Amino acid sequence: MAAQGVSLRALVDADILLRALLRRAELDDPVTAFFIRGDERDTGLSVNFDMTPVECRAQFRTSHGVRSLLVQSVRELQLEIVPDEARHANLKGIPHKDDDPDRAEFLAGQLLKISELVSQGLVKNG
Amino acid sequence: MAAQTIPWATFVGREDTLVGRRRMRREPGSPDWESDRDRYHQPPASRRDLSAGLLVEGAVESKFSHATAILDLDERLAGAEIVEADPLPRIRLAIDKLMSPNEDDGDPAATEHAYQSARAVVESAYGRLFAGIDAQARRSPRHRIEAFAALNRTRIPIVTTDEHGGIRLSWQHEGRHVRANFAAAEGLRSYMYFESPLEHDVEALQPDTLSNRLDWMLKP
After folding, report:
1. What are the φ and ψ backbone dihedral angles of A6, each rounded to 5 degrees?
2. Which residue in A25, A32, A101 is closest to B193 by CB distance?
3. Could you tell me how many CB contacts below 8 A there are between chain A and chain B?
4. Which of B5, B13, B140, B178 lies deepest, with the highest CB count within 10 Å?
5. C-alpha torsion angle, residues B195, B199, B205, B210 (rounded to 10)
6. Distances (CA, A) of B184 to A98, A103, B108, B109, B195
7. Residue A20 in 3-state DSSP?
8. Whole-angstrom distance between the N-terminal and C-terminal Cα of chain A?
9. Would you say B72 and B4 are in contact if contact means Cβ atoms under 8 Å apart?
10. Residue A48: strand, helix, or coil
11. Model ipTM value
């Protein structure tokens, strides 16, 4: 849900989404970067936009990298991208792997194929 | 020429093509062998025999076969030698390392439940896989070469934990994927996912299903 008073712009096909890699495993086994995390079950797969990979990583105490996705490519997978903050959105329609492993694995693999690793290496903040 | 890795050996090419890069054979009893013995577990004798047999058969076959693929393989085998062994110890080691992860990695340690399941299922699955290839290899020299090529396509999987301490092994070969997910605890779901350009699905994660899927993945 959008914070009160924050206007949300509509994403266009040319926009770039960023997915932060919060565990080393998401770098080593990159398909897992696109699994729904435990705290994303109700909201969807968390992504940022309108920011650089460095800015994206600055939001987290520890990160191992960032993968980028083109909005158009995500939409071609029939996934809905729902902005909920000025520079944050959630990808809807991806099940948790404990609920539907076949679809979760397949979509994670598809998202990996259309993504690009744009930052890697351990970064600690604070 | 870069070294080629097969399940229980690393091959290097002919000596004259590897000036300055050739790795030395570890002879049993030599200081090298002694120092490396703790690092590399020896494969079971049956597998060592198989690999040695494949090398000999491959060299012999090249004199008689007109099959280009086989000749190509034999070209690579002709000057090869075995210098290290068996993927299973490396997989075991990778699974063992998940029990004490680096704190900076942000990955949880594997749970005992996942660890025991992964070790048991993977070891048994590889045992079945190798037994199948072994049986195939005994059928004929040509089958030995085909079996060798299949083994040569085997890759060490990526081994990681999930966010709960479950264990995940991920194999990939020419557009085919096999991913084994061992649940962190009783009551959570373990599964095996497979994918090719034509199909994808999940199956129960058991030694026979994993072995069959690895065999499927390695098929030419």
Report:
1. -95, 125
2. A101
3. 60
4. B178
5. -70
6. 11, 20, 10, 10, 23
7. strand
8. 28
9. no
10. strand
11. 0.93
Contact state of A101 with B102 under an 8 Å Cβ cutoff: no
pLDDT at position B158 over 50: yes
Q: What is the identity of the amino acid at A40?
A: E
The phi and psi torsions of B188 (rounded to 5 degrees) equal -90, 155
Judged against a pLDDT cut of 70, whether residue B211 lies above it is answered with yes
CB B106 within 8 A of CB A24: yes
Is the pLDDT score of A47 beyond 60? yes
DSSP-assigned letters across all residues of A34-47: GSPPGGGTTT-EEE
> Cβ contacts of residue B35 below 8 Å, gap of 6+?
none
pLDDT digits (tens, 9 = 90+) for A68-101: 999 999 999 999 999 999 999 999 999 999 999 9
CB contact under 8 A, B160 and A29: yes
Q: What is the DSSP letter of A105?
A: H
Looking at chain A, the whole-number percentage of residues with pLDDT higher than 90 is: 93
